[in-house]
Design goal:
It is built from 17 helices and two strands.
């Protein structure tokens, strides 16, 4: 059993909950980061309350070798916040994270798959059986909606509702960050994959004789034991098929989210539409998150700017200015 976190860490978490109003999901992420930090420092014979700049740098260096840039950046942010809290509360005089180098935004954004790579990944799910139908539906929903993996595994049967029987572009409810609900379109391919998963050859075959939890009975996606599919389980599904087509190092559920947004922008979607799809509170987040391709930028500029193309009757493609 893990040793308990120090009192200062528990006070920091309480402050985040009471003073900053952080959600239970966010607090759980902070706790995981603090737990990893505590255990990593213990290996060096150091403690959270007395960590030195060298201790912090060594921990983050080790984290970079085993975690994604985004996970490392989140952990660094948690550690910074914890040590600033200690200083503000008078629990130590100095902050060992003051000189930590910032992680650039470009390092945090996963590289989107090309459309061809995405097709290869989705085509890798072949065969029959309930887990295969589930895996196909899971990948199609992740890519088709651009939803976060946590949002997708939290979906209940009632969230899908009558979407599978509706018209051209039905909508599905998802619960995003800060418990904000939004609706996302369910495309034709994802809709078909979900219909097959919910058929008699899919989800019903994984339903247990007795549900362990009531929430499992409501879950849209089940694991092989009849419980709700977890984030970790969904990550494993994505990695399994990515490995089959040689994309294991590139693909994660978040890469599918990023690819969905990038491909939509590349095909002319308005950035505000993508903002709504992804559930970003600020359009600035979407603009940073979705890298517009140079070709899309060129087409948009030529199609919208009045001075982008040569005007008839000018010489050498240059306008005559009086």
């Amino acid at each position: 059993m893990n040793a308990p976190l120090p009192r200062s860490a528990e006070e920091f978490l309480s402050w985040l909950e009471v003073e900053r109003g952080r959600s239970p999901r966010t607090l759980a992420a902070y706790r995981r980061d603090l737990r990893a930090y505590h255990d990593g420092l213990a290996v060096r014979g150091a403690t959270m309350d007395a960590a030195t700049p060298t201790d912090v740098a060594a921990f983050l260096s080790g984290l970079r070798s085993t975690h994604s840039p985004a996970s490392t950046a989140r952990a660094q942010s948690t550690i910074r916040g914890f040590h600033r809290f200690l200083v503000d509360e008078g629990l130590r005089p100095d902050d060992p994270t003051v000189d930590l180098p910032s992680i650039s935004l470009s390092d945090l954004l996963p590289r989107a798959l090309s459309e061809e790579e995405t097709e290869r990944l989705l085509a890798a799910v072949v065969g029959t059986g309930p887990t295969v139908l589930r895996d196909r539906a899971l990948l199609e929903v992740l890519y088709g909606t651009g939803a976060r993996v946590s949002e997708v595994v939290a979906l209940n049967l009632g969230d899908v509702g009558d979407a599978l029987d509706e018209g051209e572009l039905p909508l599905v409810r998802v619960l995003g960050k800060g418990d904000k609900e939004r609706v996302v379109p369910l495309g034709r391919v994802a809709r078909l994959a979900l219909s097959e998963w919910l058929s008699g050859q899919g989800r019903p075959l994984l339903e247990p004789g007795r549900w362990r939890r009531r929430s499992d009975a409501e879950a849209l996606f089940l694991n092989a034991r009849g419980g709700r599919l977890t984030r970790v389980g969904a990550f494993g599904v994505v990695k399994k098929y990515a490995a089959r087509v040689g994309l294991a190092e590139k693909v994660s559920p978040h890469v599918l989210r990023h690819s969905c947004a990038t491909h939509m922008l590349g095909r002319g979607a308005d950035v505000r539409v993508v903002q709504e799809l992804l559930g970003h509170a600020s359009i600035a987040t979407t603009q940073r998150y979705t890298r517009v391709s140079p070709e899309h930028l060129r087409r948009a500029y030529e199609g919208a700017h009045p001075r982008a193309r040569a005007i008839a009757g000018t010489k050498g493609g240059r306008d005559r200015v009086a």
